[in-house]
Amino acid sequence: MVFPPLREELRGLAPYGAPQVSLERAPVQLNTNENPYGPSAACAADIAEAVRRAATTLNRYPDREHVELREALAAYLSRDTEPTRGFRVDPAQVWAANGSNEIMLQLLQAFGGPGRRALSFAPTYSMYPEYARDTVTDWVQGHREDDFTLDLDRARALVLEQQPSVVLLPSPNNPTGTALPPEAVGMLCEAAASYEPGGLVVIDEAYGEFRRAGTPSALELLPEHRNLVVTRTMSKAFALAGARLGYLAADPAICDAIRIVRLPYHLSAVTQAAALAALRHAPELLGKVDDLRAERDRTVESLRARGLTVADSDANFVLFGTFADRHATWEQLLERGVLVRETGPEGWLRVSIGTPEEMMAFEAALTEVLTQDPLTEEASTP
């Protein structure tokens, strides 16, 4: 007997996760795209009071429909849609879960599965093929251009050829930071609606709040495409990575389909209370997003001034390179107390945007590394 009797396709695989290094070894941790600014004292106090109140009724199951939270999330998302397109997101269009990871898994549980396909374009978020694997959904991967954009004609042709049930596209893309233009979203939605039984186009806007001025959200296209799903998270802009709250906006029929596969009472009363409290502090939390945007743009220019190739970013991270041995560069930065991420195409590294002090430490360490081992290998310029 082989023990444990694991599914054959899972044997020998390692769990997903970025390398975890102690703060003693790497005081500057810039590898998981966390918000370096925790909730303010006022926000933390509001969260604590909300959780205290929720604790008095923890003998009861939570609201499995999380009605109050969906209303608050719909109101928050409407700030993106009402000024530009004149419509409000309805609470019936919103669904929440324990992080965007659970949202994605629920989508593939409902719309993927044996005999169905999920499709994306590399380089992209490395969890997508794992969602497909875990739901026994066939995984199809196209490729981005050298500048990390999509060739729209080729992307459309691949969707029509493969006829996926779910197309997964982050915007901004992780790990490149590249945002999708609205015409790309619309074209892919039309392509995925043109065959039977059709497919969903899921635009993962985990980093949507960090996009540059003038970069629209896919939320604006919801009225035009019933098969469009836009996902968000409170981990990044709201600095609530530890609370685990992700959500989506879509046609109400899609939310109803997810109800079929969701676990009962999947969203705890404590999580709902913490998220509602944080949403009341949205203006001050998003003020820190403005600071991170400015620090990102400064970092891009600083890295380019050092002769590095840097992808344009609408996220809270920057992909830079290229290095003949990126692992050696990663190790040399770690030796100097700075942890970044080895991800994306070979030769590239990704750095999360931290506080100005953290970014100064990163750039000082990088300068030392480049002085010892001056650059890099040739690569196309995004």
TrEMBL record:
Gene3D superfamilies: Aspartate Aminotransferase, domain 1 (3.90.1150.10), Type I PLP-dependent aspartate aminotransferase-like (Major domain) (3.40.640.10). Residues 28-359 form the Aminotransferase class I/classII large domain. It comes from the Bacteria. The modification N6-(pyridoxal phosphate)lysine is found at residue 236. Its EC number is 2.6.1.9. InterPro entries: Aminotrans_II_pyridoxalP_BS, Aminotransferase_I/II_large, HisP_aminotrans, PyrdxlP-dep_Trfase, PyrdxlP-dep_Trfase_major, PyrdxlP-dep_Trfase_small. It catalyses: L-histidinol phosphate + 2-oxoglutarate = 3-(imidazol-4-yl)-2-oxopropyl phosphate + L-glutamate. GO terms for biological process: L-histidine biosynthetic process. Its cofactor is pyridoxal 5'-phosphate. Keywords: Amino-acid biosynthesis, Aminotransferase, Histidine biosynthesis, Pyridoxal phosphate, Transferase. Pathway: Amino-acid biosynthesis; L-histidine biosynthesis; L-histidine from 5-phospho-alpha-D-ribose 1-diphosphate: step 7/9. HAMAP family: HisC_aminotrans_2. Homodimer. PANTHER family: HISTIDINOL-PHOSPHATE AMINOTRANSFERASE, HISTIDINOL-PHOSPHATE AMINOTRANSFERASE-RELATED. This is Histidinol-phosphate aminotransferase. It comes from Nocardioides dokdonensis FR1436.
